[in-house]
Amino acid sequence: MAEPTLEQVFGAGTTQDATTITILKSNLPGLTVSASNTAEALLTGILKRAAVNLTDANRETNLDQSVFVDLSLTPSFTTRINGANTETFIRNTISVELDKAYGTVEIDPDDY
């Protein structure tokens, strides 16, 4: 098998050159596209989109795939306190696993 493509991971129309990557916001699941999407909303959309093809099953059958993005389907709850204010939040979890050949333990993007 081969390394997952830009379009498999980030959606149709994704491109890159020597200095930029272009990901269409319309490819990001659940994102309401606007000129002022927050950085956190964009990151969440990118992770959700990556989870479509960077599955554990695909990683197990393709030695060229090194990354697995797992969207937890069971949320938890947390209470956060800010001064006199206490609020309960739903906490969703997205896990990212990175596999590389045995060697240094540092996370280096060039290894994946």
Describe it.
The structure is a single chain. With 112 residues, the chain is an alpha+beta fold. The protein has one domain. Helices cover 23% and strands 25% of the residues. The protein contains three helices and six strands; from the N terminus they run αββααββββ. The chain has a two-stranded antiparallel ribbon with strand order 1-2. A two-stranded antiparallel ribbon has the order 3-6. The longest helix is centred in the middle third of the chain and has 15 residues. The mean pLDDT is 95.
Topology:
Blueprint: H1 6-10, E1 15-16, E2 21-22, H2 39-53, H3 56-61, E3 67-71, E4 76-82, E5 85-91, E6 94-98
Antiparallel strand pairs: 1-2, 3-6, 4-5
Quick rundown:
With 112 residues, this protein is an alpha+beta fold.
Q: What sequence of helices (H) and strands (E) makes up the elements? A: HEEHHEEEE
Number of DSSP strands?
6
What number of structural domains do the residues give? 1
Identify the overall geometry: globular
Question: Number of helical segments?
Answer: 3
Q: Tell me about the biggest sheet?
A: 2 strands, antiparallel
Read across the widest sheet, the strand sequence of neighbours is 1-2
The structural class is alpha+beta
| Strand percent estimate | 25-35%
Distance between the termini: 15 Å
Could you name the ranges where pLDDT drops below 50 across 5 or more consecutive residues? none
Radius of gyration: 17 Å
Helix percentage range? 10-25%
> Whole-number average pLDDT?
95
Task: Please name the defining characteristics of this protein.
112 residues, two-stranded antiparallel ribbon, globular, alpha+beta, 25% strand, single chain, 3 helices
